[in-house]
Amino acid sequence: MPPSEFREALFGAPHVGQLPAGARDAITDVPGVFVGQVTLEDGPVQTGVTVVCPTPASTAHAGGAPDASAPHAQWDPFRTKIPAAAAVINGFGKSVGLMQIEELGVIEAPLALTNTFSVSQVVLGQLRAAIAANPDIGRGGPSLNPTVFECNDGYLNDMQAFAVSDAHYAQALANASPVFAQGAVGAGRGMSSFGLKGGIGSASRVVETAGATFTVGVLVLSNFGRPSQLTIHGRHVGPVLDERLAQPEQSAAPERGSIIMLVATDAPLDARQLRRVATRTGAGLARTGSVYGHGSGDVALAFTTAYTVSHDALGRVAPAALVPDALLDPIFQATADATEQAILHALFAAESVLGRDGHVRRALADVLPDWATL
């Protein structure tokens, strides 16, 4: 069956927009991108780590695909950097690494997601991995710019348990693969969206522009939204959801959630263009009902696997043949559609979870199985 029908059959989610999805309808449809996760689910501990590894697309195509079990082993992100840019839609967040990305336009570590209180341990994991590959980091050589993003999963997860360790980051990195689970897994295990179970979601779109075919993929850590706001594929189902959840204290509470949106593409873009792409995630986010509330950390990062930037300045750099600005609209459209789709996948794929102090987040499928008829 076609990829879009496959995803709909798997998650029950509608296909967003007119653009076709990639083979997996996931961020790993972009050549060179892999995702690894570790999920911790033990009573009051409901959390984890998700790692996105953006290896150069040329590596993925040269001599066959990289070893899917350990793609990071073939890529040293510190020495072979990936062009990237971030956009902060609402800055109520504690992510690490954004300042240097804004200044230099590259990432030099995998992109890691976890809960708010575990950022430091995941940073430690990134430092250990980078130092193992480059022993002079911090000893004569420059330091590493870790890239760790977070959302607060404290409703379901006891963040004060500090359950995530640097070893969990290493394991998630070792688990990196083109195929990965979505929903209440990895960093998304304890996340909530619209009063329902949120989590990890991903999607992709294929576009033609500038005389070539490119893929745009998105992965989200979805942890935002009030029940009354939820909109699914243009249907404002929030009022019904609010009524069925019957949690007036949560319905009246201010927005305190967040979302991290990671955009990958194999289209050759520079950091300025990638920032424009990252900004377009806001269009897809808004379609689901978000108003980027005061207490929401809405952060996007976009990167390309089309070319790399060497750590060693050994002469002039040959610029990539970039997609002209005037031909970026299909990529913008793909970004908005894939972002909305990824959020829906997180909701539709998630299972109900019982967490700390008896707190429960129910799955969308349990609360709104009839959403399409509302």
UniProtKB/TrEMBL annotation:
<comment type="similarity">
    <text>Belongs to the peptidase S58 family.</text>
</comment>
<protein>
    <recommendedName>
        <fullName>Aminopeptidase</fullName>
    </recommendedName>
</protein>
<dbReference type="Pfam" id="PF03576">
    <property type="entry name" value="Peptidase_S58"/>
</dbReference>
<dbReference type="InterPro" id="IPR016117">
    <property type="entry name" value="ArgJ-like_dom_sf"/>
</dbReference>
<dbReference type="InterPro" id="IPR005321">
    <property type="entry name" value="Peptidase_S58_DmpA"/>
</dbReference>
<dbReference type="GO" id="GO:0004177">
    <property type="term" value="F:aminopeptidase activity"/>
</dbReference>
